[in-house]
Amino acid sequence: MPASVQVAFESWSCPGGLTFAAILAGVLYLRGWLRLHSASVNAIPSWRAGSFFLGLFLIWLAVGSPLAAFDEELLTVHMIQHLLLMTVAPPLILVSAPVMPLLHALPRKFLQSILGPLFRSPAMQGIGRVLSQPAFCWLAAAAALLGWHVPAAFTLGLQSEAWHAVEHACFLGSGFLFWWPVVQPWPSVPRWPRWSMLVYLFLATLPCDILSAFLAFCDRVVYAVYLSAPKHFGISALEDQQCAGALMWTCVTIVYLLAAAILTTLLLSERSTPKSDPMQLDLHTTLAPRIGS
Questions:
Q1: Which of 165, 173, 131, 170 is nearest to 148 (CA)?
Q2: What angle do CA 100, 120, 194 make, to 5 degrees?
Q3: How far apart are the first and last CA of the chain?
Q4: What is the rounded CA–CA span in Å between residue 2 and residue 226?
Q5: Residue bearing the bigger pLDDT, 275 or 264
Q6: Cα 72 from Cα 244, distance rounded (Å)
């Protein structure tokens, strides 16, 4: 390993807060998932639980692993972080139906005395209706994507640790918002017809295509901060920028096409063999007694 790269790895320090939060979320999910299975509830198969832990690991990989040591030196690494936080990790976690196991992991008194009244309050229900609107979710993701890639905002995020954390939080939060109406995990309620999510995914590729094409085909370095960054990997700042743009276009296209293909298959399957959602049935029989007053 080149000495300069080794120095970059050695400068990395594992973020204790993020690591603790990831471990805590994993422990709570596992506890709730085991409780569901001990009650003979099969709404969440093992592959969904595995999806949750994979999503958690990818979030830690993006922000807490040695990969983060190079995001100030390579735009491509920064783009990998952004893709993991917005495009890959959120749908993996949402597919695991995380709300049900996490609620089952909490004490019943806490659910009945605090969470139950909180989520039944008109204010929280109103916020939930706004946040679950597909139009709002789409706009939030597009705003986070384009806003943080404005050169001034991008440079601020690299030069300030606090703003860098805010940037990562925006990517992750907008990622969850974007994928929520597509995955529709329990206890979400569809706001638009399911077929409209195909249009939703197609339209979501447009801001990504515009940004990635601009980065890939621009004949100058957009983010001047990378001009003075160490060249550990033997590529120029312009080549790094072109690689980042191509990576973004390829990854987003593949993920969105895969999601559209899965959604189309499910829609065709529901038309041929309509049936009730077993997870919604398990809600009534297992979770409602826990959070009811």
A1: 170
A2: 60
A3: 60
A4: 20
A5: 264
A6: 13
